[in-house]
Amino acid sequence: MCLVGLAIDASRRFPFVVAANRDEYFDRPAARLGWWQPAPDSPEILAGRDLKAGGTWMGLTAAGRFALVTNVRNPKDIDPLAPSRGEIVPLWLRGDLSMDRFWMQVGLSGYNGFNVIAADFSEGDCFWGSNRARFPQRLERGVYGLSNALLDTPWPKVERLKQRLRGALREADTADGLADALFAALGDRTVIADEFLPSTGVSLDWERWLSPAFIRTPDGRYGTRASTVIITERVGRRLVTHVIERTFSSARGPGVALLRRSLLKAWPPRSARARGAVETTQVSGRAGRPQASSLSTAP
């Protein structure tokens, strides 16, 4: 991902919410949201898929793990021979590594700059880490923002997304309404004035092009490929999670938005026994009004 808003227990009704955009060159092949198995001995994950390097930018498992990764933008700090950062998410989702062992492995693997958010809901843990920071940080209750710098670096689009996420959590009375508000925030094309732009080592033109939440370069070659919303809603003692993905074409205008949505019942599971009982349904089509979802970690 390249822009993420994350809310953890910021709302009693919606205890876990993610709103994220993936920005990439349109000629890099990718598969849309779906269940797939990264390796023969690994669990299936619900994720998009990078068909060039084989990894993913965000995903979850039926057993209650979740992860996403963003790049750290610094053209002077790029090793062209480094392994793909898309390996990081499947490694966590494999489920056999504690955070300490996982972090030791990814921190020493020579990846270019990255951020990772990794959660294990069966343990009640969620962490942010970066190989451009010293140690992983446990994420407590609150609203967080992440782009191509360290967690909560106050880039204008990060601050705007956090603000709109907080407002949506206050005002939404349904999961559908919350999803509508979050997709609207992710679709914001406001270009930031030059005096407020970060300086990340790219040209001023690129800083301008990358400054909105929803990106489309003038030549149409690079931009927001997918917007994804995950909403957990507490409905009595039930756990229901909707994962909703909108994918976009490379057209210079708004592009064609295709919708893919998965419904997870009893997710995240509260026990090992429940892990095998997660029911899923999947719907595809042309994006219209999103119908959002629910998930909760505790009654």
Secondary-structure topology with pairs:
Elements: E1 3-8, E2 16-25, E3 30-36, E4 45-50, E5 58-60, E6 65-71, H1 88-93, H2 99-107, E7 114-120, E8 125-130, E9 137-138, E10 142-146, H3 156-171, H4 175-186, H5 204-209, E11 222-235, E12 238-248, E13 257-265, H6 272-275, E14 279-286
Antiparallel strand pairs: 1-2, 1-10, 2-11, 3-4, 4-5, 5-6, 6-7, 7-8, 8-9, 11-12, 12-13, 13-14
Structural class: alpha+beta
Proportion of residues in β-strands:
25-35%
Provide the helix percentage. 10-25%
Number of domains: 1
In whole angstroms, the N-to-C terminal distance is: 30 Å
**Most strands sheet:** 7 strands, antiparallel
How many helices? The count is 6
Shape: globular
Any idea of the CATH class?
A: Alpha Beta
Number of strands: 14
CATH architecture: 4-Layer Sandwich
Residue stretches low in confidence (pLDDT < 50, at least 5 long) are 272-277, 288-299
The mean pLDDT is 90
- Please trace the helix and strand order, writing H or E for each element: EEEEEEHHEEEEHHHEEEHE
Q: Widest sheet: strand order?
A: 10-1-2-11-12-13-14
Radius of gyration: 18 Å
Quote the CATH topology.
Answer: Penicillin V Acylase, Chain A
Can you offer a commentary on this structure?
This protein has 299 residues and is an alpha+beta fold. The chain has one domain: Penicillin V Acylase, Chain A (4-Layer Sandwich). 18% of the residues lie in helices and 34% in strands. It contains 6 helices and 14 strands. The strands form 2 sheets. A 7-stranded antiparallel beta sheet has the order 10-1-2-11-12-13-14. Helix 3 runs antiparallel to helix 4. It is globular and about 50 Å long.
